[in-house]
């Protein structure tokens, strides 16, 4: 298969690569920057795609960020590839800060507290694990006579998912707008410089071709 890895990675290696990619996060960031700046699209469309990708990373819809970024970018008439690359902002190094800011903002807006206390982190983990346990149990209950359980899912929704979803709007918009207005002038300058280099290269090639033609004509006339 074309996209199949030659060296199959073990589960521990795959997990390690997720948290620390080959070459480190600095190299990964440089690669994303390289790809974004070379996208064949006007700067404003690329910047819109970056806006969409950054905003989506603040939402609690993990596993759907690529799809949501592409849809939002399409609605905004932005560059879809740029939106997918911009989801790199959400990574294992930044997700703790993203989650904390979204949850704290959500609890504040919903009136359930201005911040998430440090001593409730264990309870938060229990709520997530409890929701997962209910999901597994309810899936099995669909094919057995067991009764579905919704208590821990309801607690997770009201205490975690809903505050996260509501609270993601403000920090997500702030970071997405900042990314848009930061990337737009950078892309404009880069594309102008690249066009100038390509134009200079084309002129140099044209001049070289003219010199070669003149030499060929001169040598042909001498014969």
UniProtKB/TrEMBL annotation:
Pfam families: DUF2062. Keywords: Membrane, Transmembrane, Transmembrane helix. This is DUF2062 domain-containing protein. The keyword Membrane applies. Residues 27-194 form the DUF2062 domain. The chain crosses the membrane at residues 50-73, 80-100, 161-190.
């Amino acid at each position: 298969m074309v996209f199949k890895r030659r060296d199959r990675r073990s589960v521990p290696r795959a997990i390690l690569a997720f948290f620390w990619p080959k070459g480190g996060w600095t190299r990964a960031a440089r690669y994303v920057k390289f790809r974004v700046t070379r996208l064949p699209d006007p700067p404003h469309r690329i910047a819109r795609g970056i806006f969409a990708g950054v905003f989506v990373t603040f939402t609690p819809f993990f596993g759907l960020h690529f799809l949501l970024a592409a849809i939002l970018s399409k609605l905004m008439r932005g560059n879809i590839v740029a939106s997918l690359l911009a989801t790199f902002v959400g990574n294992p190094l930044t997700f703790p800060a993203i989650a904390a800011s979204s949850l704290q903002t959500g609890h504040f807006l919903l009136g359930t507290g201005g911040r998430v206390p440090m001593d409730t982190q264990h309870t938060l983990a229990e709520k997530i694990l409890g929701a997962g346990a209910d999901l597994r149990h309810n899936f099995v209950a669909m094919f057995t006579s067991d009764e579905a359980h919704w208590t821990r899912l309801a607690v997770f929704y009201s205490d975690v998912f809903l505050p996260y979803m509501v609270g993601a709007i403000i920090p997500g918009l702030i970071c997405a707008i900042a990314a848009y207005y930061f990337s737009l002038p950078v892309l404009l300058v880069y594309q102008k410089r690249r066009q100038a280099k390509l134009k200079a290269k084309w002129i140099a090639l044209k001049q070289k071709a003219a010199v070669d033609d003149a030499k060929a004509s001169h040598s042909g006339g001498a014969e």
